[in-house]
Amino acid sequence: xxxxxxxxxxxxASPLHALDPRVKILSLLxxxxxxxxxxxxxxxxxxxxxxxxxxxxxxxxxxxGTLLLRAMAVLPFSFTFGLISWLAGDSLRAIGLIEKSxxxxxxxxxxxxxxxxxxxxxxxxxxxxxxxxxxxAQFLHRYLFVISEQAQHMRLAAASRxxxxxxxxxxxxxxxxxxxxxxxxxxxxxxxxxxxxxxxxGFSGKFPLLKPLRWKFADGLFLAAIVAFLVLVxxx
Length: 236
Description:
Elements: H1 2-10, H2 15-18, H3 21-36, H4 43-60, H5 64-71, H6 75-87, H7 91-112, H8 117-126, H9 131-162, H10 169-174, H11 176-200, H12 217-234
Helix pairs in contact: 3-7, 3-12, 4-7, 5-7, 6-7, 8-9, 9-11
């Protein structure tokens, strides 16, 4: 699944993985602001932004093809709003909207793919994000794995009872809605058990990091270089 693959990427080792998560969050924010304020017909700045993201993928050791393919998840929404702009007679804005949305999706995936989620959320909280939002994101991420594991168990059980793959496809399709309901019911009870186990172990509403965040000189140097580079590209 998508979240499993991204979580595997984030456990890698590279210069980008080693950066403080707050540096990557601030760099992403500056990149998104620079990208959003770039003119749709500014081909050179957009090309440089794309090249910067590609360089980041190569440095981090992430598979560019897979990451670029995953980033296409945002395109259906971008195409919808782009089509509206196109029909309104603003074709340049429509193209720019699609390009910027896709590059923004790639940038977010690059940051998430080089930062384990606990450290990423710890960096967000350190930068002032409300703890409630951080807590909701942490539980959502953890329960995604619970749901995916339960779904795999149900799929294996269903395949064991149905014999040869491809037989009775129509019947299996009809049972999909019921299987989905059972999946969420099982996941709910599993989540309740996890919650009780966490409370019994003294969970206080915050997930402590195994390795505290430490801002190093290299982190500040990287952030300054990225900001300076993006500003120079933007003012061209």
